[in-house]
């Protein structure tokens, strides 16, 4: 047993932490979240320059990482830094294109020349068997019809990877011609709807169910790690605040009712950290789906607990836009909504 | 990052499994599986078997008869024992007094007492809590007054686990009322057959006799029965409590109980289908399974650090809380799974044809009530939260 990061990963994690602390301050973040594309194209280019996208792909597919722990060490820092850059969509996209064998696309994404997003789920719900979007071959080209909902990172993306039904199953297609409806997300960053109306596309794979599932599980694992980073910062902020805030003539940290609630937050973070490590260790195995679902369920339960407790323990200040803690709480709470919430993960486990 | 055990550790696990297969009697394992109480003889036989293999005093160093295991090996041993429904090693002599004597005792005490713990000549029990001193242990009032070469002890201890089997008791007594309460406490060894020692059983809510009260009326013990220095017993008490917290997470026990729960949910039919197919019940089972998987890894992280020499810090308090909550949750779900059939009592005395649940579930309701103790003893979960908070909020 060994619970330490390798030197390379530790270095990547340290570099990213330093970069976000220096270059991605809370004020900077809040300056980009209101206007399209709801992130900073300049910082995006710098992050790609740090090698983040390459860290999401294995060496044999053209990257220099790609393991579960490569994802978690990056996304934990993304959470700590409350970074709204569209890394989640980019990570899932680069892994999916790599699995489809689209070497040029992988290279373009790793180098930062192209930013893609993955469009899988639809208004009907978050399961592959509910997908209605179709792909039809017409001559040499393919056309897509349907609608994709809440596609993370859509505003300003260079292309959309669309999961659509084919005769062979569920295929994966790249389009740059889709009509998009962009919006900001309540917890920062952008997303949008993709309207596919006889939209032309390139086929990357006609039968990509396993590839899409794997990309989604990598996304869920990344969200777990991001949540752990957010939780840690939020709990540290809560502890600091309780120590500073005085009422009844003493720091409110001296009240046992508040101490025990904060301790429970800390214990649950350790649980979340542990299950995320477990899921990361299984990402390359046949049991990835099971352990990622377990992790995402526990993260979903705990994310809401910690977000709500942190706001409550802060009192009024935790309600303000001005206070960073409230934005950490929002991000944490919304992670449960992404790529299948705690209930969706339980249903996956029950069906297994 | 590597979550797997080493090949050496896996080989050790195989040794433990083989030992259990050869030495654990089917009858004793059956009692464990069915949540039936064990006799004194059952426990002594199990100790003797472990001692013959050199595996009894798991926390002692090799030169005193311990196996010299790492924290990880100890965990593997405890996990496999729990999975096999082996009796738990009675900890008072082996895992509490033994380490205390090794650290604070004198040579005479070590050479006289340790071998008798190992070979089962003595059965020790713990005289810590008093009616007025539970979580606030330092407020204990049992007095020991020096009279020549003897202490004269007056007072009362309570919650003395398995005291009915014991011939010896180690006690925290007050030898001074000067200064802070912690500064006047001493650690003293007492023969249970000394005149003036009286033991009375406490019957618990599950109907079982597990704990006792011990009364001391003018009990005279030689001063040589003092361990460490007079008035320095609090240091010893705290040291002992850290040993009480070994295997605190109870991963093996929870894993075993969860397996029983899953198996019961497949056997028991509710509303025309196996309980395991009821989505509400299945969801609760899954969530506790997920909590247990997370705690398993949290526990491994602590063991991995301990193997490299780190002292178990706040994580042992976190594991105590989480471990007991998970065990209690599983017990609660087992009781829920039984539905109306959870009621008959005492379940083990029912004729087979009066029982509508599997044999190994008959005692589950009583076990559920018994295991409410988990979050109360060994430093209640609220005291553990205080310990963690003290660190989190230190300025």
TrEMBL record, chain A:
Organism, scientific name: Thalassovita mediterranea
Cofactor: FAD
Protein name, per record: Acyl-CoA dehydrogenase
Ranges where the Acyl-CoA dehydrogenase/oxidase N-terminal domain occurs: 6-90
InterPro entries linked: Acyl-CoA_Oxase/DH_mid-dom_sf, AcylCo_DH-like_C, AcylCo_DH/oxidase_C, AcylCoA_DH/ox_N, AcylCoA_DH/ox_N_sf, AcylCoA_DH/oxidase_NM_dom_sf
Annotated ranges, domain Acyl-CoA dehydrogenase/oxidase C-terminal: 211-329
Family statement: Belongs to the acyl-CoA dehydrogenase family.
Domain of life, per lineage: Bacteria
Keyword terms of this UniProt record: FAD, Flavoprotein, Oxidoreductase
Keyword Ribosomal protein (UniProt): no
EC number of the protein: 1.3.99.-
Keyword hit for Flavoprotein: yes
Gene Ontology molecular function: any one: flavin adenine dinucleotide binding
TrEMBL record, chain B:
Pfam families, sorted: Acyl-CoA_dh_1, Acyl-CoA_dh_M, Acyl-CoA_dh_N
Keywords tagged on the record: FAD, Flavoprotein, Oxidoreductase
Keyword Repeat part of the UniProt annotation: no
The enzyme's E.C. designation: 1.3.99.-
Domain Acyl-CoA oxidase/dehydrogenase middle, chain residue ranges per copy: 125-219
Boundaries of every Acyl-CoA dehydrogenase/oxidase C-terminal domain copy: 231-392
Family, per entry: Belongs to the acyl-CoA dehydrogenase family.
The name this protein goes by in its record: Acyl-CoA dehydrogenase
Organism: Thalassovita mediterranea
Gene label: mmgC_6
